[in-house]
Structure formats: C-alpha cells, structure tokens
Design goal:
With 151 residues, the chain is an alpha+beta fold. The protein is built from seven helices and four strands. Helices cover 34% and strands 17% of the residues.
Length: 151
C-alpha cells in the first residue's frame, strides 16, 4: 500500500510468475469517473483494474489507484485467497452507491459488459491527463458527472 494524496493498492502475482506459468490473462478496468459515490465525494480520479486467468477466470491480480482504495483492496485479497473467479465476482451483489461496486464493474469490463460508464473511446478522450480537452467546459464531462460547474 502506498499512502499519498491518491492511494495505490495492488495485490497480484508478479509478471515473472505469470510468464513462468504461461498464464493467458484477461484485464478489466473501471475508472472512478464512472462511479456515483466517487463523484459525490469529489474523488473521481482513479482506476480499478482486475487481472484474471483467461482459461479459468480465477482472479490473479488487481490494481487500485484513488481515494479510499486502502479500504477496498482487501476485497480482492480475500477473493484471490479463496480462488474466486471473475464470474463469481460479477454475480456478487455490491451495494449502490458505493466505491466497492467498482470492483464488480472492472470484472464486467473484462467481458465488455460494464454497466455504469460510456465507451472506452469516450474515457480515453476525456481522461484528466488528455491536454487537448478543457475538462471543466466539456458538456459530456458534465453529463457524466451529473453536476453543475463549480469554478
């Protein structure tokens, strides 16, 4: 765990271990920008990424960057220790609105079934690090945030 302005958590097998075992992986991602609770907290910068074995669906890693991820990462640790699959995670009920539901959304994204976000092209264009966009003036940014400008 790294504690800073944005926290980072990442339990996973190393790349060397994955290559050694010749695991074919599937990756799902979900941004904080698509989570209602993160938006309500004013903490919409961050990402949840889940890594699983393509053949078995077993979770083999996760990365979380953003607010309160140190409170969430243990969910993936427990799931990995219990050899949970992505499908089991996708069928788990997560309360709404909570930050923890991003864990399920990331698993859904690995299969192209994410529920609460626009397309990846939209996210790439509107990413906070994209210098070609004034994010505070972009209409789609406001629609996604479901809020009024505060500047």
């Amino acid at each position: 765990m790294l504690h800073a302005a944005n926290r980072i958590g990442r339990p996973h097998r190393s790349r060397c271990e994955r290559k050694e075992k010749k695991l074919d992986i599937r990756v799902g991602r979900f941004p904080f920008l698509g989570n209602g609770k993160a938006i309500a907290l004013g903490e919409d910068r961050g990402l949840v990424k889940v890594i699983s074995d393509k053949a078995t669906g077993q979770l083999i890693g996760a990365h979380m960057i953003g607010a309160e991820v140190t409170e969430l990462i243990q969910g993936y640790v427990v799931a990995m220790n219990l050899e949970t699959t992505e499908e089991e995670l996708m069928h788990t009920v997560f309360p709404h609105p909570t930050l923890s539901e991003m864990m399920k959304e990331a698993a859904l994204d690995a299969y192209g079934r994410v529920l609460n976000i626009y397309s990846r092209a939209f996210l790439d264009f509107h990413h906070p690090l994209n210098p070609s966009v004034n994010h505070k003036r972009t209409p789609k940014y406001f629609a996604l945030r479901n809020s009024v400008p505060t500047d």
